[in-house]
Amino acid sequence: MNLTLKIWRQKDAKSKGKMVDYQISGIEGDMSFLEMLDVLNEDLIAKGEEPVVFDHDCREGICGSCSLQINGEPHGPDRLITTCQLHMRMFNDGDTIYIEPFRAKAFPVIKDLMVDRSAFDRIQHAGGYISVNTSGNTIDANAIPVNKENADDAFAAATCIGCGACVAACKNASAMLFTSAKVSQFALLPQGQVEASERVLAMVNQMDEEGFGNCTNTGACEIECPKGISLENIARMNREYLSASLKG
Amino acid sequence: MGGLIRSSIARKVAMALSGLFLVFFLLQHFTINFTSVFSADIFNELSHFMGTNPLVQFVLQPILIFGVIFHFIMGFVLELKNKNARAVKYAKYNGAANASWMSRNMIYSGLVVLAFLGLHFYDFWVPEMVYKYVEFAPEDPTRYYTELLHRFESPVRTGLYALSFVFLALHLWHGFASSFQSVGFNNKYSTGATKFAKAFSIVIPVGFIIVAIVLHFKH
């Protein structure tokens, strides 16, 4: 497969970047998208050029490190997968592929395709946890009965890997799907309900401070999320937030 | 409560509630307009009531005007904030892959509806205010239907109204159902409400178009 790649190149956070064209050949359909970029980088290194920087770690769709806006969609044209799970068989010989970083003011580019997603960490630090006394008298979580439906919904919310595809897909660069998943996974469980009000207020406040946009319910985040996190979580967060705000 | 006013979720809920209020107004407006298709007398009677009742004139009308102004100012503010949240645009952005045209272009459908409101106020509301509160002309309970027919004389005006209602339908298609999500109503029970909202988004604007066309040909 011969491809034309249009890749965002940016020297560092302060430099102005631009799209640069590359020709690549010998790509197999069974290769993953990241393997294709590895081949490109080997070529670039052999030619004495600077390789393209991109985030990756586990390469099995678990860690949430890989990102990339591919042909205008986060994690590319396939559904419910991350970029590392995207196969080159999704493309055709002669295709032109646009590869850009996840774009949001709250996700500044560090270099080339690598962005700083620590805004998500700060949202999580603001309240995405439960306070438990761990000095030897912790109660077994399984000792507390949990309604099956709630347990399933909490688990589904907890599958969010924090990759940032929701922000990248949203026309407003909103982080509502991520934040709502992290709020929901606790709000649905008895262990999380104790700090529910403080949690939702703190996390939403941090989300706003990071400079993410406002949610306008386009639903793009849910479609592009590699873990299929549901919009129901955003509705739940809205309810939690309103009730916590009105309680004062 | 202070944080509530500055928060993105509060803005979203405020947008939804003002939108729901305007949807309710649309239904009321359409119901009265629709009577003009089959009975000049009923239309005159209802219009006379709406035009002279002090509760409608001095309480509900200002609330409605506030609701409209609030909804469009908030719409602009959100649009500007959202544009600012992605300073560098994508070279290629495939919005159609994951969201409807209606949901991505609320600002444009909203602007057409806003422009239409300008025309509509120029056609009906301004002359009505002048008639009642500037000229202090004597109230004639039978004048409304004649005035209505007169406005739809022009095919261009009728066409502009019909086109505006198409954009209203596009705006409502996303906005009405989306307001349920904004106020936190999205679960197994909200499916029916969403279907109702989608049906409303088509039926009411199409109804307005039918009324405009019927009045044009009645003249």
How would you sum up this structure, described in words?
The complex is a heterodimer of chains A (248) and B (219). In chain A, 37% of the residues lie in helices and 11% in strands. Chain A is of the alpha+beta class and 248 residues long. Chain A has 2 domains: 3-111, Ubiquitin-like (UB roll) (Roll), CATH 3.10.20.30; 117-247, Fumarate Reductase Iron-sulfur Protein, Chain B, domain 2 (Orthogonal Bundle), CATH 1.10.1060. Chain A has a 5-stranded mixed β-sheet. A two-stranded antiparallel sheet of chain A has the order 6-7. The longest helix of chain A has 16 residues, at 232-247. Chain B has one domain (15-68, 104-218). Chain B is mostly helical and 219 residues long. In chain B, α2 (8-38) packs across α9 (190-218) and α6 packs across α8 (155-182). The longest helix of chain B is centred in the first third of the chain and has 31 residues, at 8-38. Chain B has 9 helices and no strands. The mean pLDDT of chain B is 94. Chain B is globular.
Under CATH at level 1, the class of the largest domain in chain A stands as: Mainly Alpha
Strand/helix succession of chain A: EEHEEEEEHHHHHHHH
Which structural class matches the secondary elements of chain A? alpha+beta
Instruction: Identify the overall geometry of chain B.
Output: globular
Beta-sheet strand percentage of chain B? under 5%
Q: Based on the structure, what is the oligomeric state of the protein chains?
A: heterodimer
Tell me the name of the CATH homologous superfamily of the largest domain in chain A. Answer: Alpha-helical ferredoxin
Cα shape of chain A: elongated
Helix content of chain B: over 70%
- CATH topology name of the largest domain in chain A, in short, is Fumarate Reductase Iron-sulfur Protein, Chain B, domain 2
Specify Rg of chain A, calculated over alpha carbons.
Answer: 20 Å
List unreliable stretches of 5+ residues of chain A. none
The biggest chain-chain interface is: A-B, 52 and 42 residues
Helix content of chain A: 25-40%
Strand-pairing-aware structural class of chain B: mainly alpha
Q: What count of helical segments of chain A does DSSP give?
A: 9
Largest sheet of chain A: 5 strands, mixed
Mean pLDDT of chain B: 94
- The total count of strands of chain A amounts to 7
GO molecular function (chain A): 2 iron, 2 sulfur cluster binding; electron transfer activity
InterPro entries (chain A): 2Fe-2S_ferredoxin-like_sf, 2Fe2S_fd_BS, 4Fe4S_Fe-S-bd, Beta-grasp_dom_sf, Helical_ferredxn, SDH/FRD_Iron-Sulfur, Succ_DH/fum_Rdtase_N
Cofactor (chain A): [3Fe-4S] cluster; [2Fe-2S] cluster
Pfam family, one (chain A): Fer2_3
